[in-house]
Amino acid sequence: MISSRTTSNPRNRTRSSRTSSALVLLIVAAAALAPFPAFAQSCPEPLNSARRLVLVTSESLKATTGAARMFERASPQDTWQPVGPAEPVVLGGKGMAWGLGFHQFAVEQEPKKAEGDDRTPAGAYRIGKSFGFEASPQPGYIPIKDDTVCVDDVTSPAYNTITSRRIVGRKVHGEHMRGVPRYRHGLVVDYPTDAKARGGSCIFIHIQRSPTSPTAGCVALPEARVVALQEFSAPGAVLVTLPQDALGRLSGCLPALADGQ
To answer: I need a surface site. Which of 28, 103, 118, 215 has the fewest CB within 10 A?
Structure first.
């Protein structure tokens, strides 16, 4: 029995196929050219959602000094705006090393942060609570008392925390914070805790001993600037520490630096 439907022309089928393929290519091309919103970038947290930023850069991973710049933006989709000029900072005695959560950014033989290595962790970390010798109305402020210690003992459950000697006991190794004048004013950097990997502990922003005296792994500034940072960071801020030649590894996530530093 012969079908009553009209037999299609092979040439028509070929033209139709070509037209469909062209439409698909146009759709793909349009999607590729469409502008992506800022939040769609693969920026690491907490940088991706940050609205206040303290960006510390140095000439290299080995440098013990650098520059700090403050930025803010109304939302994660907006452009970073500078807040004041660049200021000199002091870093770890052996410079920087890639911190926990940012090891994947290391290339070749670049160092990774370890307990006691005198290196400031490179990466992006939230700035936590302020602390100091004097009382403060800031929410969550940590008063440094006579028995306050920061535990750097990898065998202790209190590793990488500020606590009291009375709680952890005398056998646990920790820094006696009241005995360090540079802790008159400071801020905790919320650096991840990994005692098993000896990933590093007690990372702070604190007062510098001098413009050229390195730290044990913290970021140090003049006292007045630390106090200003306490105010700036009170609503929440992120610290990014990077050597200049690694800024491109977070391309699109950081503000552009006009002077290249």
So the answer is: 28
